[in-house]
Structure to design on (282 residues):
């Protein structure tokens, strides 16, 4: 009898045989919102694989996993953001839009927490090798999630801190051709109003709380036209105040875009190589 119980216990601890392919899930949040999640596994080996959760820009959502070269070393995971901004809106819609955006930010952070718990308890996932990758707008969420949950690996690509400065820079880029020297003043007014309407957490606060066993790889573009250098520096300075193990790298080129397939493949190759050195992937 003891031998039978021992065999059953051993079998229960073994990883399940997971077929290669794609799995789609729905995560239900506290508000009742359902978030669509995609898990892509290119290996059918009966071993626990690491998991890499990728957050890109709002327009891609779970489709970001389609931009990454398939790998047999890990399960790739993406999800749709619980908030999709409208293409156009009027000033009369600013307050309702701000409330929706605020709710979407909090629900995205909640989604990361629930996703971490889901992956950590799956028999086909190695709970000790969970990595979150934040690209561009996904970077602040990756940093915040890493401070809240035990993501061992954190990869930040074209990330930033100093949200007010970063937001103001976007307004200036859009308005300078039209308003010339007045663009800076108009951008400051718009950024100030936006930050007062939306209570957004600062990624620097989370960066400072990262723990000694967490490893962070931050890659930034040398000629990033979307993110001001001082915003990059703000996040780097905050990370240096944490106890995490840090690697910073600046690469030639511009801010990564979804249509830049070759650049994305090269960035992922560098990140994958770094993850291999950290023991996050096989």
């Amino acid at each position: 009898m003891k031998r039978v119980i021992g065999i059953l216990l051993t079998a229960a601890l073994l990883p399940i045989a997971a077929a290669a392919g794609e799995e789609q899930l729905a995560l239900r949040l506290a508000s009742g919102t359902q978030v669509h999640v995609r898990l892509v596994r290119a290996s059918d080996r009966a071993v626990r694989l690491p998991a890499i959760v990728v957050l890109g820009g709002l327009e891609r959502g779970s489709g970001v996993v389609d931009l990454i070269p398939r790998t047999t070393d890990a399960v790739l995971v993406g999800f749709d953001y619980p908030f999709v901004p409208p293409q156009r809106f009027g000033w009369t819609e600013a307050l309702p839009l701000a409330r929706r955006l605020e709710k979407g930010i909090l629900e995205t952070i909640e989604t990361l927490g629930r996703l971490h718990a889901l992956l950590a308890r799956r028999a086909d996932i190695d709970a000790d090798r969970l990595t979150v990758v934040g690209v561009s707008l996904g970077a602040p969420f990756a940093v915040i999630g890493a401070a809240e949950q035990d993501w061992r690996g954190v990869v930040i690509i074209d990330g930033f801190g100093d949200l007010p400065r970063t937001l103001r820079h976007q307004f200036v880029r859009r308005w300078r051709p039209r308003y010339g020297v007045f663009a800076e003043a108009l951008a400051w007014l718009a950024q100030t109003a936006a930050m007062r309407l939306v209570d957004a957490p600062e990624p620097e606060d989370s960066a400072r709380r990262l723990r000694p066993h967490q490893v962070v790889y931050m890659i930034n573009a040398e000629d990033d036209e979307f993110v001001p250098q001082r915003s990059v520096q703000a996040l780097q300075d905050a990370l240096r105040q944490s106890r995490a193990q840090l690697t910073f790298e600046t690469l030639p080129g511009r801010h990564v875009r979804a249509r830049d397939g070759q650049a994305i493949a090269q960035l992922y190759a560098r990140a994958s190589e770094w993850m291999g050195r950290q023991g996050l992937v096989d």
